[in-house]
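Example record for the data management plan.
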Amino acid sequence: MILNVDLASEVPLYQQIRDQIVEAIAEGVLAEGSSLPATRTLAADFGINFHTVNKAYDLLRQQGLIRLNRKTGAVVTPTAADPPFSTEWTARARILLAEAVARGLPADEVLKTCRSILDSFDARKPEETP
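Corresponding structural encoding:
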């Protein structure tokens, strides 16, 4: 997995790291049980404070996407959509879609983009053997 951070971005560094890890999980690049780099290692690689990486990892832990352990470090956990997440996700998606409509994007273009993104996640997941 390759992470990139944009030091000039308005998006906080911890959020960039968190978002890229979520995408890697969705794409199948990080499977259940995959280890993430140590916070200090990743921070040193980017030349940022390790607390920034720690904040990203803690957010992922709170969201149930990784488990943190002193011995094993950060590891991707099995996940399932629970009702609170589904409600929160729907609200966030509604706002994002409302913004697209408010900015004049045609509904068919929005749907096409959503389908393309979802398909990109499916295409990158490893094939399951029967």
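Summary line stored alongside the record: Residues 105 and 118 are 19 Å apart (CA to CA).
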